[in-house]
Amino acid sequence: MNAPPAAAAPAYWHRTSSTTSPGTPSRRYLLCPPEHFAVEYAINPWMDPTRPVDRTAALRQWADLAAVLRGLGHRVELMDAEPGLPDMVFTANGATVVAGRVLVARFRHPQRAGEAEAHQRWFTAAGFRQVRNALEVNEGEGDLLVAGPRILAASGFRTTPAAHREAQRILGLPVVTLRLTDPRYYHLDTALAVLDQERIMYYPPAFSPDSRRLLHRLYPDAILAHGADAAVFGLNAVSDGRHVVLPATAQGLADQLHAAGYQPVPVALPELRKAGGGPKCCVLELRSDGGPP
Ligand code: ARG
Questions:
Q1: What is the per-residue pLDDT across 215-250, written as a single tens digit (0 to 9) for each?
Q2: Of all protein residues, whose CA lies closest to atom 9 belonging to ligand 1?
Q3: Domains in the chain: ranges and CATH
Q4: Ligand 1 atom with least separation from CA of 141
Q5: Which of 65, 146, 208, 217, CA to CA, is 20 to 30 A from 33?
Q6: How far apart, in whole angstroms, are the C-alpha atoms of residue 204 and residue 226?
């Protein structure tokens, strides 16, 4: 029997020059090529060190993500990959930057601890003047998402509630504490994405009942992802307020975004998914808010 023809992707899902929109303010992002990428340990349920990883494919897929971000008019900065730090491609975990203030991460697992130093060095060399090393465990934008006037912060697996208080003190924005409960969604950016100053999308079952109530109260018009899209890291998305870069496999979520007036932009990062990461994990936003640097 012949297999049924694959459903055609909707027209908006194709990447064309129309995704470039001169009206969207340009953002500045920090990325790191997966030159030493590997799955050598398992610190989240997606990682299986016995499963082979194709680093060449990972590099190609990552380069495509960087090209997409540049194509949208954003500035991509690069940090050097270091041997012995196979997860370094996930720059989102290395720091959180608000108005030029940098809170460098302190990783939960010793295998990633060295990444914090690499970030500290990069930010200092890049001319950021307010660079602070965290005293409490926080995994940067993996768990601390800047959402307009506040930071949405998760605890449960990596970042601690004490780190939320530290982030509020150092970054100067009020922090809303949320609790993750499903180990597959171990970082906030695997279960929630900030779309613009007012809107978010998230997967409610990843959160405790109290956090779900809080999110519903703060964001009554949020886009709620379905399980199938969350499971392919659909929520691990990078939004510039208009374009939302997300895994091509999250088709349902792309439809929801399109219906809500956003432009979904597909990328494919299957190799990095073997480490439990998607597009957002590879992108750290450098918010200087107009001030130096
Ligand atoms: N293997 C990495 C870890 O478990 C993946 C990090 C993904 N990053 C993210 N922002 N969710 O720490």
A1: 999 999 999 999 999 999 999 999 999 999 999 999
A2: 281
A3: 25-285 (3.75.10.10)
A4: 10
A5: 146
A6: 9
